Amino acid sequence: MTTFSTLPLDPRLLPGLDALNLQTLTPIQQQALPALLEGRDLLGRAPTGSGKTVAFALALLSRIDLGLTRVQAVVLCPTRELADQVGKQIRKLAVGLPNLKLSLLYGGVALQPQIASLAQHDPHVVVGTPGRIQELLRKKHLHLRSVRTLVLDEADRMLDMGFEEAMREVVGRIPADRQTLLFSATFPDAIRAIADSLMREPVEVHVEGAASAPKIEEWFYEVTHGQRIEHLIALLRAHQPDACVVFCNTRQDVSDVATQLQAQGISALALHGDLEQRERDEVLVRFAQHSCRILVASDVAARGLDIVHLDMVANFELPTDAESYQHRIGRTARAGRDGVAINLVSPREMPRALALEKARGAAINWGRIPPPSTRQDPALPAPMTSLRIDAGKTDKLRPGDILGALTGSAGLPASVVGKIDIFPTRSYVAIARDSAGKALDRLRLGRIKGRNFRVRSL
Q1: What's the rounded Cα separation, in Å, for the pair 268 and 246?
Q2: Which CATH number fits domain 216-360: 3.40.50.300, 3.40.50.2000, 3.90.79.10, 2.60.40.420?
Q3: Is the model's pTM score more than 0.85?
Q4: Confidence grade of residue 211 (pLDDT, cut at 50, 70, 90)
């Protein structure tokens, strides 16, 4: 069985396969689709790019009754970026299903338009993140009592990002006689436990190339309370991470640590629950665009945070339990890269460190703080600077328009232009730090798509 034509597919799905020019089954599709089309639960270990999205999309679409205007399939994803990708793939495969409604429900965007869309009539398919779907359920704008298929995509990342509670609450609102599909790049004990509690005799499939367990180098450093910040600075200067999240247990510590790092010439921003959504968006954009090296965050503020290439995680203070610790350090060592986790432990926190050691059944590594440098301490500036343009999707602005303005009339080489992010009314572009002033001046004097927009440096 190597082609889609050998499968007992609903004829309505064939136009979608033709539109995507899909003919040959990938290994994960060969293993999974026969069981999925029979309605079996499935536990799949598969990496990104394996073709798993097409497999579960065909499964859930084959069970959709277009005459029933109720939510019949839910796909939970760890990030809005993945939810967007999954939603686009399902829509393309559903080209032969007239009037199928699919709703994307995730955080980081306004809630009201999502509520308004749900108020018109229920979608057939919901793709989104656990936190936003949980919120809409609690507000009674979303109803899942008719769901037939549940997909947990990249479940290990959802656990790493602290979504287990929200995930379980959402699943608890879905009928128990559903079909459940769980896909994960790794199978830690926590994933096994979720599978055991949510699934019924699942078929298990595995394809080569699935990621092995992340390689995280963990170090613990004994400090006094008054030494925390100076020792954190020493460790950051020793490691010189390109991207690091420093976790604090209180909102006050988040602000204080970020301020003290900035005072020492270290590029840092604070992320805490008191920030307005726009402020939070700009902090995360700057971090993702490498115009900030160190993100200082609380657990609540970091919920749903997903940075693919994170060199290091630092615990300014140990969390109170082993599960929270794993969620924190699980944000590094992704996409095939190794990572580092450093932990500052005061005598008062020593019981937490010992409990962590007991929970994992292995000794933890204790390190020495590097001695102060005899030379002038180096600053840790960010390699990029983010520029904000007061125009976005509603102005029909695209990344290519911004890149064209910078490399055309502004005369900058494309090599100094980094990541570009477009929001409804704002856009952000990363520029190499040494070229940011020139880019700002040229954009203010020039035009983008023939129009003048307000531009400023963040």
Answers
A1: 10
A2: 3.40.50.300
A3: no
A4: very low
